[in-house]
Amino acid sequence: MEIVERLEDERPKVRAEAAADLVELCRADPEARERFGMRFLTLLSDESPAVRGQAVVGAIVCDDELAHVDRVARLLEDPSPGVRLQVIHTLGPLGLPEVAEALVPRLRDEDLRVRTTAASALAFGGDARGLDVLVEALEKRATREEALHALRQIAAADERGAVAEAVRRIFGGLFTSRFERVAAAGVLAALGDAGGRTHLVERTGKTGMDRPLAMELCGELGIAEAEPLLVQAAADRKDTLRGTALRALASMQAASAFPSCSDVLLDESEDVDVRSDAAEGLLLLGTAAAEGVLLQAREQIRDQRVGRVVQACLALWGKPQREIRLYLPLSGDELHGD
């Protein structure tokens, strides 16, 4: 098999590209996962950091029983910061208690990105042990947005007020980007700050590049003032963020979310991406009725891309919203489209 030959090439770049191709093959093919799972485990010790990073992903993709998580977690001690980051990105969403404990030492990692990502992974699991690291990460542009999104999950755990103080400086900063300002508004809104809520609603009604994030945050935080704007966007076929609005309405459990998401998903004339967003909206709703529509869609839908998203939503069914959001947004392409 050509891909196996490339895995044995003496050139690290060729091996890394082959490993990446093998990861994608295994994502799409259960037989390939069974065949190559052990191969990824051997690649965890490859001399090339790029190969080891791909092996981290492949080892978990092929590990349906999560029997080899401990072997992958050992690479949290890898000399390459990039490999350590890949381990955190791959293991963090699994939500396993043993992974959380393995991440704690990385809060003292010499690399700020690794520290920040470890703290972020903990925060999205509701663990505030990395709070100080995230506040530190606000000081650097390279890690600021990641820290802001993570702090939104655990800001209420800060009893000293350090988070609110640092985030307000960013929110009101002269050189703060639109995306940073919206992310900062999300943290402030999570803390009950009216100014943060107002900013998110305002940006939801505008046409800027930060509008999708503002919509998502209004949905996640349940900001009722934004609901009329989201309903309007969800009903407008000319609005390029119609799908985002559907998902946001579902996040806030709005009354219109179920009928709107159901109608869009089951309508073969609708845009493929919007239908995929509608499926994710039903996943976020999490009701028995929403599951019923996804099951119906699995049997009826002809478009393969939408069908893959529906299947992925059903695979995630029953998980808490906090965990589900780690996987969203899904798309047909990301789920190994043609």
Task: Explain the overall architecture.
The chain is globular and about 60 Å long. With 338 residues, it is an all-alpha fold. It is built from 21 helices and no strands. The longest helix is centred in the N-terminal third of the chain and has 17 residues, at 12-28. The protein folds into 3 domains: 1-94; 110-190; 193-338, Leucine-rich Repeat Variant (Alpha Horseshoe), CATH 1.25.10. It has helices spanning 2-7, 12-28, 30-43, 49-61, 69-73, 81-91, 97-103, 112-124, 131-137, 141-154, 162-171, 178-190, 194-204, 211-221, 227-235, 242-251, 257-266, 272-285, 288-300, 304-315, 321-324.
Short descriptors:
338 residues; 3 domains; globular; mainly alpha; Leucine-rich Repeat Variant; disordered C terminus
